[in-house]
Design goal:
The complex is a heterodimer of chains A (211) and B (209).
Chain A (H helix, E strand, L loop, with lengths): L2 H10 L2 E3 L6 E3 L8 E3 L6 E4 L4 H14 L1 H6 L3 E5 L2 E5 L1 H10 L3 H30 L5 H12 L6 H16 L3 E4 L2 H18 L2 H8 L4
Antiparallel strand pairs in A: 1-2, 3-4, 5-6, 5-7
Chain B lengths: L13 E3 L6 E3 L6 E3 L6 E3 L5 H21 L3 E5 L2 E5 L1 H10 L3 H30 L6 H14 L5 H12 L6 E5 L1 H19 L7 H5 L1
Antiparallel strand pairs in B: 1-2, 3-4, 5-6, 5-7
Classes of the chains: A alpha+beta (211), B alpha+beta (209).
Chain lengths: 211, 209
């Protein structure tokens, strides 16, 4: 990059465009905990979060720890006339697969296993890079995937699905609450807190070495 | 505030990266490029945003029909099977005296996908007609449509859980139906449709005033 182009890039980082209405705004330096929003359409531009990297890393690790039990331990079950049956998330997917709804089986495993797992692994790795002040091209690419896949992680929808299924089971027989429910809830809480604690702009700047 | 001339990033030749929000100067007449920070593709406005969004909205409306007509699951009870579509499943829930759950399922599986499609159609028509009506409200509408996206997958997950859990051989079992697949496809199509719509188009006329 030439000297002049470099200078231009530096100037551009002083400006911001609103994601929703494309309004061009001079960027303000925020203090921790402060939030900037668009004067025209009120969408959030930027939030500076406190102690973001350490907190995000902590909850991401907690999420990874509860991941395997959340997938393999039984979540829900039912009991009638002396017979019992319980299922884990993996068994749910296997059962849809056996009903020959292959597409649904693939989608459920993507939305409830692979996307959440990949995002947790990525965020752990990136927080280590950020905490050690290591700019990284791979890190930037991974963070891009992390951002683009956000919508396709559906743990919270699955949790609501379990609540609805529980009520439906209660209409048929008596329900069994599996031990996996605790791990699943802790995975869900960790994944939600990751998005709460993560300061996206800070990570982009750290990874590209501009901060 | 009223006296300040509002400028869009595009009018200054700057394109905001949708992924990392970095501003990029696009060289001479180009409409797209790669973000200097995260290498994601950047555009002034998503290319063919309206056409793609319309196509996906129409496709999801088409898939909405089999999603509601095909059985989403079959409940076997002592050898006799009854198939339920999404709507008949809701009626069954009411008959079982579980009105609150019926309301949740009705909202998540029927009202949400339909209002998502309707909301997108409103946005697409107003942008197509170069409407200047209430851009703030329309931006809010877009945010709601985007937020609702994944929640309509609820019924697909419920069917997946029920199919595995309710399995006591001859006494009672649940078999997921083809409707679940159609429903999942419909939800994904609406999510892609919302994705294709570039919300900045709502504001473009304001800037030209």
């Amino acid at each position: 990059m030439s000297e002049r182009a470099n200078q231009q890039q530096k100037d551009l980082s002083q400006w911001f465009a609103c994601s929703d209405c494309d309004l061009l705004l001079k960027r303000k330096t925020l203090i921790e905990g402060e939030r900037a929003s668009c004067p025209r359409c009120k969408s959030t531009l930027e939030t500076r979060k406190k102690d973001s990297a350490s907190r995000t890393l902590a909850v991401a690790v907690a999420g990874l720890v509860s991941f395997i039990p959340a997938m393999t331990l039984p979540l829900l079950g039912l009991e009638a006339v002396g017979l019992k049956n319980q299922s884990s998330l993996l068994e749910c997917i296997a059962s849809i697969y056996n009903s020959e709804l292959f597409l649904v089986a693939v989608l459920v495993s993507l939305f409830c296993i692979f996307v959440p797992l990949a995002r947790l692994l990525i965020v752990c790795y990136l927080m280590v890079l950020v905490k050690n002040n290591r700019p990284s091209q791979t890190g930037l690419r991974l963070f891009r995937y992390f951002h683009e896949w956000e919508e396709w992680g559906m743990l919270e929808v699955f949790m609501l699905g379990m609540v609805v299924a529980l009520y439906k089971i209660l209409g048929l027989a008596s329900a069994i609450y599996g031990v996996g429910l605790i791990s699943f809830a802790s995975l869900l809480i960790s994944a939600t807190l990751v998005t709460q604690f993560l300061d996206e702009q800070y990570v982009w700047e750290k990874l590209s070495g501009k901060r | 505030m009223a006296n300040v001339k509002l400028k869009s990033a595009r009018s200054e030749g700057l394109a905001r990266c949708h992924t990392c929000s970095m501003l990029n100067k696009l060289a001479g007449g180009a409409h797209h490029g790669l973000c200097t920070r995260c290498q994601a593709p950047v555009h002034f406005r998503s290319q063919n945003s309206l056409e793609r969004s319309w196509a996906l909205v129409i496709a999801s409306l088409v898939v909405f029909i089999p999603a509601n007509l095909l059985p989403i699951m079959t409940v076997n009870y002592f050898g006799t099977g009854t198939s339920d579509t999404i709507l008949s499943g809701i009626i069954t829930l009411i008959n079982l005296g579980m009105a609150p759950v019926a309301v949740i399922v009705f909202i998540a599986s029927f009202l949400v996908p339909l209002s998502k499609i309707l909301g997108l159609i409103i946005l697409l028509i107003t942008v197509n007609r170069h409407s200047r009506v209430k851009p703030v409200q329309r931006t809010k509408l877009y945010r709601v449509v985007e937020f609702l996206g994944k929640w309509s997958m609820l019924d697909v997950f419920v069917v997946a859980i029920m199919g595995a859990v309710v399995n006591l051989g001859y006494i009672t079992s649940i078999e997921p139906g083809k409707g679940a697949a159609a429903f999942a496809v419909m939800v994904i199509l609406t999510m892609f449709a919302a994705h294709s719509f570039d919300q900045r188009l709502i504001w473009d006329l304001k800037d030209n005033e």
